[in-house]
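User: For my dataset I need records formatted as: sequence, then structure tokens, nothing else. Please produce one.
Assistant:
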Amino acid sequence: MTETSSTLTMQQAAERLQSALGKLENALEPMIARVGELETRLEKVKTIDADRAKLASEVDELKAQNQSLREREKEFARLAAETTRELETVIAEVQTALGENGSGA
């Protein structure tokens, strides 16, 4: 091979390599764009998952508060019923005492 044909062959090889690299780059661009889209979606999914977990935690907390309030409500109802019975007893005793005092006068 002569120096000119060797240079030409190297030049052709370099051009072919450049052409192949250009085609590869063109083929990869849509894939790179798709990966970017998928990464964006993944971040959105992570955000949604975090929001869901936070909401689930808040729901659990509210359920616990609700249960506590129901228990307190039952206790208040029990105390109110007990107080009502005691008041009825006291009223009856007062009426009896007044009746005894009133009938003897």
